[in-house]
Amino acid sequence: MTTMNKELMLNMYYKMWLCRLINYELLELYNQKKIVGVVHNVAGQEAIGIGVTAALKEDDYVVTNHSRPYPHWLGKGIDPKKLVAEIFGKADGCCKGKGGEMLIADLSKGIMSSSILCGGLPLAVGWALSIKMKKTDQLVVVTFGDGGSNNGAFHESINFAALLKLPIIFLCENNQFALSVRVTRSTSVRDIATRAIGYGIPGIIVDGNDVLDIYDLIKDVSKDIREGKGPVLIEAKTFRVGPWSTTDRNIGYDKDEENIRWKAKDPINRYREQLLLLNLASQKEITSIENRAHHDTQDAIIYAEKADYPSEDALYEDLFSEN
C-alpha cells in the first residue's frame, strides 16, 4: 500500500460517507417532489471517485459522465452546499442552477462533465492535448460506464490519445449494468480493460470497491503518464446496488441476489474495517467522522432549500464567451 498519512485516509472515509448521505437525501427529496429532473443512485460506487481524486494533484482535471459522479465532485473539492444547491436549481449552485445533476461543472476545481453518453471522452482528450501543448505537469481522468465502452467516441478518443501519447486516464466504472442491460449482453469481451490491447496502451483491472487499491493504482500510473508515456485504460469492477436513478424502479430486470452479495462488499463498510484493522482510527474517531458527514449533509440541504432561484434575467447570462 502506498504510504498515506492518517489525515488523508480519514478524509477519504469522511468523503465517502458524505457522498452516500447526500445522494440518499437527494433521492428522498426527489420522491418528495422537491427536486425537478433526475437523481442518480451512487450507492456501492463511492470508492472509485474518492480513491481517484485523492491520488491526483490539485490542478489535475476530471471529466465525469452524466450519472453517478458524486464521489468525483466531492473528492475534487466542490462545496457540498454549492453542489446540492445546483441540483435544487438554485442561483447559488456551482453552475448557477443551470446545470442540474447531469451537467455539474466547476472549472475552478478542474471538474467538467457532459450529459451525452460518452460525450466527455473527446472533451477530455482535448483537455489532455492542451496540457501536452502547454507542457504542464498535469493529467486528465475521464470516467464512463461499461455501456459507454461500446460507444464510438470511446474508441476514437483512446486511439487519438494513444497516437499522441496524451496525459489521460480512461476510467471505466463497470457496475455490471447499462441501465437495465447486463454487461454480458452488451459487451463482446469479458474484461473491458483488454480493449486497450488494440490501441497499444496498458489496460488494468482494479477492485472498484477497494478505495486503497484504487488510490495506489492511480498514484502508480500517474507517474508514467506525467513522464510522457501515454494514456492508460483502467476498468474498476463494481456493482450498482439499487436502481439506476429516480426514473428506474428496478423494473424489467432482477438482481436481488446480486444486490445481497455485493452489499457484503460495500466499499464504505470495507474501508471502515481496514481503518480499524490497521489501527488508523478508533471506533470513537469513526463515529465522529460519520456524525460530521451527517451534520454537513443536513447543512447542505438546509442551505439549498433556503437559497433563491435564479432571476429571469439569468436566462440571458452565460450564453456567449466574453473572451
Search tags:
single chain; 323 residues; alpha/beta; 6-stranded parallel β-sheet; two-stranded antiparallel ribbon; 11 helices
Please tell me about this protein's structure:
- The protein is of the alpha/beta class and 323 residues long.
- It has a single domain, classed as Thiamin diphosphate (ThDP)-binding fold, Pyr/PP domains (Rossmann fold, 3-Layer(aba) Sandwich), CATH 3.40.50.
- The protein is 44% helix and 11% strand.
- It is built from eleven helices and eight strands.
- It has helices spanning 6-31, 46-55, 70-75, 80-87, 120-134, 152-164, 183-186, 211-226, 256-263, 267-277, 283-306, and strands spanning 61-64, 111-113, 140-145, 168-174, 177-178, 181-182, 203-207, 232-237.
- The strands form two sheets. The protein has a six-stranded parallel β-sheet with strand order 2-1-3-4-8-7, with helices on both faces. A two-stranded antiparallel sheet has the order 5-6.
- Helix 6 (152-164) links the parallel strand 3 and strand 4.
- Helix 1 (6-31) runs antiparallel to helix 10, helix 1 (6-31) crosses helix 11 and helix 2 (46-55) runs parallel beside helix 8.
- It is globular, with a radius of gyration of 19 Å.
CATH topology term: Rossmann fold
Question: Which architecture per CATH?
Answer: 3-Layer(aba) Sandwich
Q: Please, what is the oligomeric state?
A: single chain
Q: Which sheet architecture does the biggest sheet show?
A: 6 strands, parallel
CATH class: Alpha Beta
Structural class: alpha/beta
Strand ordering within the main sheet: 2-1-3-4-8-7
What is the overall pLDDT average?
89
